[in-house]
Amino acid sequence: MGKKLWLFGLLMLALLIFVACSDKDSEGDAEDTNPGKAETGDENDRTLTIAIGADMVTFDVHDHINTSTEAIHVNMFNYLVKRDNETGEIVPDLAESFENIDDYTWEFKLKEGVTFHNGDELTSADVKYSLERVAYGEELRDYTNYNQIKEVEIIDDYTFRIITHEPEPVLLNRISRIASGILPSKYIEENGFDHFLENPIGTGPFQFVEWVRDDRIVFEVYDDYFGGKNPDWDKLVFRIIPENSTRVSELLTGGVDIAVNVPPADWERVENHEGTYLAQETSNRTLMIFLRSTEGYPTSDQRVREALDLAIDNGAIVESLLGGAGVPTITRVAPGNFGFAEHLYDTYNYDPERAKELLEEAGYPDGFEMTFHSPRGRYLQDAEIAEMVAGMWAQIGVTANIEFMEWSNFVELRNAKENKDAYLLGLGNSMFDAANALDYYSATRFEGETDYRNDELEELLAAAMSNMDPKERSEQYVRAQEIIAEDVAHIVLHQESINIGVSERINYTPTMDEMIYVETITKK
Amino acid sequence: MNYFIKRVLEIIPVLFIISFIVFVLVFVAGDPVALLLPEDAPEEAVETLRTSLGLDDPFYVQYGRYVVNMLQGDFGDSFRYGQDAMSLVLERLPATLELAIASILVAIMIAIPLGIWSSTKKNSSIDLVATGAAVLGKAMPNFWLGIMLILLFSVTLDMLPVSGRGSFSHLILPAITLGTGIAAEMTRLIRSSMLETLSQDYIRTAKSKGLRTGIVVYKHAFRNTLVPVVTIIALQTSTLIGGTLITETVFAWPGIGQLLIQAVNTRDMAIVQACVMVIAFFVIVMNLIADLLYQVLDPRIRYK
Amino acid sequence: MSQLLEVKGLKKSFDVTRGLIKRKKQYLHAVNDVSFSVQKGEVLGIVGESGCGKSTLGNLIIQLLEPTEGEIIFDGVDLRKLPPEQLRKKREDIQMVFQDPFSSLNPRKRVFDIIAEPLKTHGSYNKVELEHEVLQLMDVVGLNRSYLNRYPHEFSGGQRQRIGIARAIALKPKLIICDEPVSALDVSIQSQILNLLKKLQKELQLTYIFIAHGLPAVKHVSDRIAVMYLGKIVELTTKENLFTNPMHPYTEGLLSAIPIPDPTARKDERRLLEGDIPNPVNPPTGCAFHTRCPYKTELCERVEPEFTEKRDGHFTACHHPLKEGKGIISQHEKY
Amino acid sequence: MNDILLEVKQLKTYFFTEDGIVPAVDDVSFNIHKGETVAIVGESGSGKSVTSLSIMRLIEEPGKIVGGEINFEGINLNKVPRMKMREIRGNRIAMVFQEPLTSLNPVFTVGNQLAESIKLHQKKSKKEAREIGIEMLRKVGIARPDKVYDQYPHALSGGMRQRVMIAMALSCSPKLLIADEPTTALDVTIQAQILRLMRDLIKELDTSILLITHDLGVVAEMADTVVVMYGGQVVEKADVFTLFKEPKHPYTKGLMDSSPKIHEWNEELVSIPGTVPSPFEFPIGCKFADRCPHVMNKCKEEIPSLIEIRKGQEVRCWLHSEKVVDLE
Amino acid sequence: MPDSLPMQNNLVKNSKWKRWLKLLLRSKTGTVGLLIVLTIVFVAIFAPWLAPYEHSVIDPLNTHKPPFWMEGGDMANVLGTDNLGRDILSRIIYGSQVSLLVGISSVVLAGVIGVLVGLFAGYFGGFLDAFFMRLADSFLAIPNILLALVMLGVFGPGLMTLILVLGVTNWVQYARIIRGEVLSIKERDFVRAAKTIGVKNRNIIFSHLYPNVISSFIVVATLSVASTIILESSLSFLGLGIQPPQVSWGTILSDGRDYLATSWWLATFPGLAITIAVLGIIFLGDWLRDVMDPRSVK
After folding, report:
1. D327 pLDDT higher than 70
2. PROSITE patterns annotated for this entry (chain E) (predicted)?
3. A353, B264, C87, E135: least CB-packed within 10 angstroms?
4. Are B98 and A20 in contact (CB under 8 A)?
5. Is the CB of D99 inside 8 Å of chain C's CB atoms?
6. Is residue A24 part of a domain?
7. How remote is the C-alpha of B239 from its chain's centroid?
8. D56: distance to nearest CA of chain B, Å?
9. CA–CA distance, A322 with A337 (Å, rounded to integer)
10. Residue A36 reports pLDDT greater than 60
11. pLDDT in tens, A402-445
12. Does D247 touch chain C (CB under 8 A)?
């Protein structure tokens, strides 16, 4: 029997080794790129490892709406134009120059000598293919952000025009964000899109090596990058580590150089740890409480909404739950966005006494009971914030029954328009334009869900939508934000922070758009 | 042989029932479309997508289509990845298997000596400590243990890598995390099974022959205990795979567990279906193997 | 005496087919063409070694098993043809005493519940009547009345068997099948139970089918004895005949194998049966006993002997029945 | 006498249960001479099996031998180190158990189990052990022993298994064979075969037997000397002829009367009233007092001692001790 | 008759309760287990009176306060406070309610289904049996955490859903155990005796089989209360367990896991509570198994 038992053990062991080995084969040279300890070894020294929380979704740049996926894509694809994170201006990237010809037409000139990772040169045909694919592809997830484009007209290899259906003031914003990456049309036509998905190529500073799903995405530097070969990094590895504490532990032990989404609990640890520091930046994401203005809900009364807003001490939330990282605000449009209203930013209304008065005026001297939906684990400290808000409302006599929801159920609830008095939601704005942000206050979009309506606002928004005069358009948006603030259409809590743990051996400053531009990451 | 064929045939209705259960769940789960599109997608876009995915058809049509496709090993494309669900699942299977097998080995290495040891010293302080340790192993939630192990062995002691899959050292912590819980159950079962075996007449016979205690315990008793132990290991497959869900998340282990959790969170039902079917199939096959091993290990069954 | 039970050509086979390829149906003929009858007030003993089918026979008669073939005519009715509900009612007339006093009593029930169950099932008694009946039954089988509310585990084997007997006689059945009622008991207790069973049989004019694996227990209570071997009755006659003039060589072997509690009677020349009982799935051809029979001829290997009445009231299935006086008790010792 | 092989002197084996101490064997003494067959008779709970296990030192928790001597070939088994005891077990003293099915390990072949003690005690190689093993199987009357050698116990019939057990026990030519109810689980025709086999073999091998049984028939067939036990004590001890001719203890008599007399016609069986009490409920005095037809007041108060009433017959009963006193 | 060890029939004179008490005191672990379980039940029932604070009251100025023996801690919050300034002791005390409720109700639900299925399938056999056993095999092949995960993902987490889901996923083990027992018990002579008496099937099932299988159920059920508590915490880890403001040990533990390195007390005390509870329940269950095993006590 001894023999049989040993045999059994050996078989199990053999199976283990087999499984382990068979998999290593498929990993190819992943073994080499395995960071292990990032500080050790010459080769590792030129490898940058970044820990992210969720896997990339796809290499189909047009078929995802995922910020963290785009944060990876920006390193291997390029947009025609990009937003300068310092100034907020739109500057050329693949394009050499651009020009607004009329309300409907923009003309672009491409840089010459830009090559894809397979050596093909970038031409207008690639741009036409890329933009029209998403502008016409109803099944693509980014379709609604690009179907404003009517056509891409090729003038010559390096010149083309983008023609829109309507006057489109934010066209440049549109094509400097998710789904704006330019794809290699020839490569795709020759090999098919599925082949592209498996072996994607772009024009970016890094080229694709492999993607082990839920584990890692590996890139290597592209020598012929039109912006010059990256001087610091030969290899770029994104590792997927969903559990917060694990990600932080990896950072602390040197397993990764950068860990995104460090929870507030670990900020001090990362900051104080020898060899790491915490890099913070305000994001373009604002946390809000959507209130229901539908007839019959207490929150349909502006005074109630205002009371609820006044009851919340945004400063306390930011201080105690976010460790001071985050900016209390009254408007959703953040600095760096087109249409930013400075007087509504970095401030908040807090006056519980007045709130009680308002409630009494509105006919709720003893408060009322309401339902408050909140996602959990979606935004920084979302559940905690919801609980604290409910606690603050309790101070003015409003009982908010919080119902936490798992994300997909929460989305479902909203889609079915079964949301009750209030829900918590954080919204980003990849366009960096007030149009995108204020769209949430238009009456038709959220009929049955929030039912907020202000006719003056409707007109303003409609006018701004196709106003090609930037100055006037900006004023329109500032006015719109004032109306919204007076109405307390929604309660705006604060602008979230981006919290990234970084190894001391590198310099990195996160950017507001939550993209991870490896070009901005340098060795110390 | 006859028995084997019978057991194999039994798998068919079981897989069928499982597919039905999963399909009903998915059907009830409703519409993934909302999650597929941006939050501000217009109504028509939602409708178009819904129709193109065949989600407008009545239940029996959808089920029929599902069964026909399933028989061809096709669970549809993942909404999230836009790729064939089954191949995505199979891609992860090796990672999960590696973790599962390593965990079983860890569990065996802990449980067999501990179980035997405590059974031969019944009610002694050793037994008490071993039983206590086993219960403790079961009482600790997996994720908690995993995080603690990382903090201790990786962060504080800097001995082992924190997470990910790769070298052998990457495997150690997750295998211990997952193996401990299973070892706990196994220890208890081996102990009670050993106790029962040790009270059998043939043990007395063996002792009456003047054999050393070691031979009596390890040859005569343990060999008989092996039969239930194999069954336990097989039955634990299910728990084990369940445990990988948690362990894989904690250790960023790129296996089925992570894929599945993501899929559930994003209502990526093709993946969920494929995952459940693959896992169920695996569990069933393990049980089948255990059944066959049973026959090898226990001649009584052969002579029945 | 009138006939109470007649069993005609009763057969029971179990499917024990194995193997996938070359699938040959294999049956274990546990009871193979058995016929006999039992008169009212009679005790019929059935003996045989393990695997001879005696317990199966008992279970067939009481309808715990479904026969493959044959008739069981009880009280003029073929039990096999009764619809389920009528059969259930009929059950009050046939009862059973089981072998294992530990497993035959529900451990979660009190003595009262156990003995009262048949009464509750087939009669309508109020609480007082029921208790009265049960207490009387306890008296009859010699159980102390104070045990009424105790649980089976508080009793010894002998006392448990008394409870089982009380349950069996509660409905005053016409026939009781005793399935090895004493083989699990200590020697000194065996005789108590045998005496009790005998006493009850006389007092209540009961009819027994008494199944046992050894002749000693059967001898004491039976009027007639049937000897079974490999699913068949090989000899059936009165007790006196069997012990003085057995006809079947198997009976002779059975008798002589019994150790006699008298050291002076040690006889090394005793004829012992050789070999084991053959596998019942593949019984030998011809006379099933021929593999162990000291008298076997070529005929025995080929032809199965018929079960016929060889002398007055003495049935046997043997080509070469023994001469008179081969028993262990000589004729003149009789009474 | 010099040819005493085993001397059990005032053996006491108690079980220390949580409900109290159970004196399962209480002051038991007897001798076994070379070549002699001694039978211990008694019902369940009489302590006969515990006696045999005590001799083998196989008493397990919570049981413990608390007193007495077991002298085997001049060695006190109660005192020898465990190592030494293991050398005696299976080699000088062997044992056959009641249930041949459960007493054989189901997952090893007959040969494996048979060879085990041959290899251990006779220091034989695997191949030699196989030859000896097969020879032993032939000796116990197994046809085609080389085939049976490689079979698993479950493939064998009950009688065959018991033959294997006997072969195993006798494989090292022990001086003493302890047979604990060796035929109880067998059919009567097989029992007769096994008893005859044992008788033939011990004659051949010059082995003594300690036979544990409840069946007086078996005793009468096999034993030279009989020890009757009740409630952990020896109540009567005599040579087999004396005992069956003139049983003195009321329990011995009761036992004989209640056994069915297969070879004579008698309708009424005399039975011992009552049941064997639980170990905690034995009377203070004579353990049989509650069931004894001749019980006297004295019986309930004081335990009688085992007294030799005539040469070779000892009884533990007040009836007879009185007589002895009277005689003197 | 074999000479069985002379230890049976030794408890004749004790009443049932005395017997149990005696058996309990005899086992140290059993006593400890029962005491732990009784304490937890007591705490759960009287939580509102025992807890120093309401479990959901937040105090932004008093967060991450360590337990009293550490620097910065005091007796106002004996076990410290969490990231929202809630009193950990109070949360654990209240958490016992939900944890026990989930554990016990889901086991009872699963038990009712499982026992009924086991009894009927085992007793009647045939198609009914084949069907339920294939169904059971199917459920067994899906790890229960997986099934729970998918079901909770579909139906949305919540206390009632959780109980229902765990009930539905766990019935199988009871059904199989009960069926197994029924298969062996129905061959026992007392059931055959009931048949020969002519007792109706329904009565055989409920008055003969049920009382004899229920003890195995109780043993397994006890142990699965423990595993349910752990399962609930695992589901909380995945975000699908009990949702706040309801509080269970699992949610406290899983919420506190981000703070294991900084404010260790957030996750350690609920972890300890789970460990102790599970320990107690397993000890109790083991003891129940020992005393309810018909072989151990006659």
Report:
1. no
2. ABC_TM1 (PS50928)
3. A353
4. yes
5. no
6. no
7. 5
8. 7
9. 23
10. no
11. 888 877 778 778 877 888 889 998 888 888 888 878 877 887 77
12. no
C239 interaction partners in chain D (CB closer than 8 Å): none
Answer whether residue A37 shows pLDDT above 60: no
Q: Where are the domains of chain B?
A: 2-71, 89-297
Residues A491 and A369 placed together within one structural domain of the fold: yes
Q: Are residues A489 and A354 in the same domain?
A: yes
Instruction: Kindly determine whether residue C100 and residue E189, on different chains, have CB atoms separated by under 8 Å.
Output: yes
The percent of residues in chain A predicted with pLDDT above 90, rounded, is 27
Q: Which position has the token pair 């012929």?
A: A224
Residue E52: predicted pLDDT: 86
- The residue range of the domain holding E203 is 26-52+71-292
Domains in chain D (CATH in brackets) are: 4-92+172-321 (3.40.50.300)
Give the per-residue pLDDT at E9.
39
In terms of domains, do A449 and A515 share one?
Answer: no
Name the β-bridge partners of D237. Answer: D227, D314
C-alpha distance from B246 to closest chain A C-alpha (Å): 10
Q: Is residue A18 in a domain?
A: no
Same domain for A316 and A277: no
Q: How many CA atoms lie within 13 A of B11 on its CB side?
A: 16
Delimit the domains of chain C by residue range. Answer: 239-335
Residue B73 clears pLDDT 90, i.e. is over it: no
Among A385-394, A401-410, C120-129, C221-230, name the one with the lowest average pLDDT: A401-410
For residue A448, the tally of other CB atoms under 10 A from its CB is: 11
Looking at the structure, tell me whether residues A153 and A243 fall in a common domain: no
Taking an 8 Å cut-off on Cβ atoms, the answer to whether B135 and E144 are in contact is no
Calpha distance A224→D46 (Å, rounded): 98
Residue A51 in any domain: the answer is no
Residues facing C209 on adjacent strands: C44, C177
Domain that holds residue A99: 67-191
Counting one residue from A and one from B, how many pairs have CB atoms under 8 Å apart? 154
Question: What b/e sequence results for A459-472 when a residue is b if at least 16 CB atoms lie within 10 Å of its CB, and e otherwise?
Answer: ebbeebbebeeeee
* In chain A, residues 8-67 whose CB comes closer than 8 Å to chain B: 9, 12-13, 15-16, 19-20, 22-23, 30-31, 34, 36, 54-55, 57-58, 60, 63, 65
Selected residue with higher pLDDT from E7 and A222: A222
Question: Which of E28, E151, E154 should we substitute to test contact with B (largest number of B Cβ atoms within 10 Å)?
Answer: E154
Residues of B in contact with E295 (CB under 8 A): none
Q: Are residues A203 and A258 in the same domain?
A: yes
Number of domains in chain A: 3
Interface pTM (ipTM) of the complex? 0.80
Percentage, residues of chain A above pLDDT 70? 92
CATH of the domain at E205: 1.10.3720.10
Task: Mark whether A298 and A424 lie in a shared domain.
Answer: yes
CATH code where residue A299 lies: 3.10.105.10
pLDDT beyond 70 at C247: yes
Judge: E6–D15 Cβ closer than 8 Å, yes or no.
Answer: yes
Query: Across residues E194-200, what is the average pLDDT?
Result: 88
Q: Do B201 and D97 touch (CB under 8 A)?
A: yes
> Which chains touch C (3+ CB pairs under 8 A)?
B, D, E
Q: State the DSSP string of C34-82.
A: EEEEEETT-EEEEE--TTSSHHHHHHHHTTSS--SEEEEEETTEEGGGS
Put simply, whether E18 touches C (Cβ < 8 Å) is no
Name the CATH code of domain B89-297 (choices 1.10.4080.10, 1.10.260.40, 2.30.30.230, 1.10.3720.10). Answer: 1.10.3720.10
Among D89, D105, D121, the residue with its CB nearest the CB of B208 is: D89
How far from A70 is each of A59, A67, A82, CA to CA, in Å? 9, 5, 13
Average pLDDT across chain D, whole number: 87
Identify whether A26 is part of a domain: no
Tell me the mean pLDDT in the region D87-95: 90
What the block records as the tokens of E201 is 């099937």
* Interface contact E154, partner B, CB < 8 A: yes
pLDDT tens track for C267-294: 666 677 888 888 888 888 889 899 888 8
Instruction: Return the top range by mean pLDDT from A132-146, D205-219, E58-72.
Output: D205-219
A406 to E153: CB separation less than 8 angstroms, yes or no: yes
Length of chain C measured in residues = 335
Say whether both A261 and A389 belong to one domain: no
Phi and psi at A328, nearest 5°, equal: -65, 140
Q: What is the pLDDT of residue B139?
A: 82
